[in-house]
Amino acid sequence: MTFSFIQSQIAHQKTQNLYRSRKELDKGTGRLLIHQGEQYINFSSNDYLGLSQHDDLKSAYIRGINQFGCSSSSSSLVTGYTKVHQELEELIADWLEAPKCLLFSTGFSANSGVLSTLGQNKSTGYFLDKLSHASLIDGAFNSKALSRRFKHNDISQLSNMLSNSNCEDKLIVAEGVYSMDGDVGDVSGLNDVAIKHQANLYIDDAHGVGVLGSTGQGTIAQQNLKKGSHLIQMITFGKALATQGAAIAGSEELIDYLVNRCRDYIYSTAMPAANAMATIASIKLCQTEHWRREKISALSQLFKSKLDASIEITDSQSSIIGVFTGSEENALYCQEQLKNRGFWLTAIRPPTVEKGKSRLRVTITANHNDKDISELANCINEVLGKCLQNK
Ligand SMILES: Cc1ncc(COP(=O)(O)O)c(C=O)c1O
Questions:
Q1: Is residue 205 one of the residues assigned to a domain?
Q2: Is 133 a catalytic residue?
Q3: In the listed set 240, 268, 287, which residue is the last one of a domain according to the structure?
Q4: Whole-number average pLDDT of the chain
Q5: Is 314 found in the same domain as 191?
Q6: What integer pLDDT is reported at residue 391 of this predicted model?
Q7: Same domain, 294 and 380
Q8: Residue pLDDT, tens place only, 113-144
Q9: Which residues does the UniProt record annotate as the domain Aminotransferase class I/classII large (predicted)?
Q10: Are 129 and 204 in contact (CB under 8 A)?
Q11: Are strands 343-344 and 38-42 parallel, antiparallel or unpaired?
């Protein structure tokens, strides 16, 4: 192979404890995960509401397949858009109190697609929170917009940047819940700044939807934002809603524009109607089964209360709790030791997080129970406690 950097970069990742590989699972969703015949309690999945194995979703999927087949077989502008896709878009627009909504096959594609579509020239300024997801960074920095990043959640730095910007169109880009820390962004503060500076606001709520808000509408509803045509919401289906895909909710004009100009939307096969049907079933459960959100909150409190005081965690207010391990080596060691004790969770290392901020990413779902949580906390105290003592 002629790309000589491949060998050297892989070798570098290996020596730095940053090499990534996949694990072929026998079963990967739900409370229990099976790998090479062994069962583990799964603290790695984003199935926050515990819906991935729910009968309502499965039967909706099967009904969808029987009615529409396995694929939508073309893009939405050709023959891929059905009444079910339309019903899902209307349900989401209603739920998020947005004028209109548009479906995408993945959240990555929604983020990068929308930001590259809106970032058409240098008179547009993008202002991204430093911890924005890779798909937002790619979309922004691969577009023609002038993209800058502000310190995580630092509204006064953002405000200064906006004051000093001569850009004609401004878009603030941030998340509702940050995927590696589980902290909730000050979305309401961002909205105030956006309104003050006549900027637009794009909120990726991949990890907030389902978990926050009285019916799981996410961070924007929880913080009771003043809405307007400046606001663009993005939600994903592959996490709390336990299906696949994403939606952009915003003004009628924006959605119409994306249908006509967003290359990710136009030149990609629409999500299968069966997936849209299962997502409708999922949203209905999410809207009514409040106990799932209450359980996540109670289990998260229990987990935090059981960890030793010497163990540092992220400032989480969601399903995601980061347990800092210090070095990458410690993160990998703890992941392995916890696996030996029957827990499956993921070591998160640079470049996903800053150097020195490696961590175990614990995701707590409505399917876990008190015993799972207490036992995990005890094992982390033991395994990570030893690492920290030997440092
Ligand atoms: C904050 C955030 N945005 C977007 C995405 C991408 O969503 P999807 O998995 O649907 O592509 C993710 C997934 O990891 C995410 O964490």
A1: yes
A2: yes
A3: 287
A4: 96
A5: no
A6: 64
A7: yes
A8: 999 999 999 999 999 999 999 999 999 999 99
A9: 39-378
A10: no
A11: parallel
Q: Give the relative orientation of helices 107-118 and 134-141 as an angle to the nearest 10 degrees.
A: 20
Is 69 found in the same domain as 41? no
> What pLDDT was estimated at residue 386?
85
CB of 110 shorter than 6 A to ligand 1: no
Rounded to whole angstroms, the Cα distance separating 352 from 20 reads: 12
Amino acid at 286: C
User: Which helix (H) or strand (E) segment is 117 a member of?
Assistant: helix 107-118
**Residue 65: how many other CB atoms lie within 10 Å:** 17
371: domain CATH number is: 3.90.1150.10
Ligand 1: centre distance to CA 325 (Å): 24
Where is the domain boundary, 231, 257, 287?
Answer: 287
CA angle 336, 299, 223 (to 5 degrees): 115
- The response to whether residue 244 sits with its C-beta less than 6 Å from ligand 1 reads no
Low-confidence ranges of the chain (pLDDT < 70): 391
pLDDT in tens, 263-284: 999 999 999 999 999 999 999 9
Residue 42 lies in a domain: yes
Cα 201 to Cα 122: distance, rounded to the nearest angstrom:
18
The bridge status of strand 231-236 relative to strand 246-250 is antiparallel
Instruction: Name the domain count of the chain.
Output: 2
Cis check: omega of the bond before 99, within 30 degrees of 0: no
With a 6 Å cutoff on the Cβ, whether 181 touches ligand 1 is: no
Tell me whether residue 327 is one of the annotated catalytic residues: no
Query: Do 365 and 348 fall into the same domain?
Result: yes
pLDDT of residue 352: 87
Q: Are the C-beta atoms of 125 and 101 separated by less than 8 Å?
A: no
Domain with 370 in it: 19-49+290-389
